[in-house]
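User:
Note these tokens:
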Amino acid sequence: MGSLTNSQKIYNTFVSNGEKEISLNTVNSYIKHIEDSFIVGKSNRYNIKLKKYIQTPRKYYFTDIGLRNARLNFRQQEENHIMENIIYNELIVRGYNVDVGVVEVRESGQNRKQLEVDFVCNLGNKRYYIQSALILETREKTIQEERPLMNINDNFKKIIVVKDNMKHWYTEEGILVIGIQEFLLNQNSLDL
């Protein structure tokens, strides 16, 4: 949930655990069936600067967190991934096409690094870039979450959703910081 993956990675995990009777085609089939049954939703990777899709890896999110938790017997309660999944589900319900953003930046000379934007949301002519961050307890953490957003050279709205139940505010760089509760309960929260 909320981690980059692909069918090859899943297949390799089965093989390394001793499963000999599975093929890559079987894994691809199962993923497709799970998507078709609306158990999970798929989010493709999108290179924001080059304006093109990257085929693999992708992120998958559960359409019902309760079913996911029940199936796992309430283990693996990674709050940050669960919050990211909830944000994804809400954006889908609101009608957005939701992708995972990739921004390439140059660091110290020729080194390139890919930064991830949790969600690139599109609906008609509207676009939002959204980061999911459990808490922004320090200025350093705020800068870390802002960094991918600050490397996007367009004027679409940039947002960080946090767990705290607080009044929304803007960072020095003009990025909206909003609590998850306000985000979920206010249909117009992206336009604050």
Observations:
- The mean pLDDT is 91.
- Helices lie at 7-16, 24-36, 65-71, 79-93, 139-150, 180-185.
- Residues 131 and 160 are 5 Å apart (CA to CA).
- The chain has six helices and nine strands.
